[in-house]
Amino acid sequence: MLRACLSLLITSRAYLAITAVNAILFLIDFNPTGTTDGTNLR
């Protein structure tokens, strides 16, 4: 039971981290610096 709760907590935190990184990358692409598309930052 405890192990299941810990694994669920770890996976949810990893999912939140991946979602935050994707949101930051989307914002960087959505607000380009000097170009019409944000592909220059990748």
Give a structural overview.
Keywords: Plasmid. The protein is mostly helical and 42 residues long. It has one domain. The termini are far apart. The model has no long low-confidence stretch (mean pLDDT 78).
| Structural class label | mainly alpha
The figure for the number of domains is 1
Q: Termini distance?
A: 42 Å
Tertiary shape: rod-shaped
What is the residue-averaged pLDDT? Answer: 78
Strand content: under 5%
Task: Provide the fold topology.
Blueprint (H helix, E strand, L loop, with lengths): L1 H29 L12
Short description, anyone?
This protein has 42 residues and is mostly helical. Helix content is 69%, strand content 0%.
Key features of this structure:
42 residues; rod-shaped; 69% helix; mainly alpha; single chain
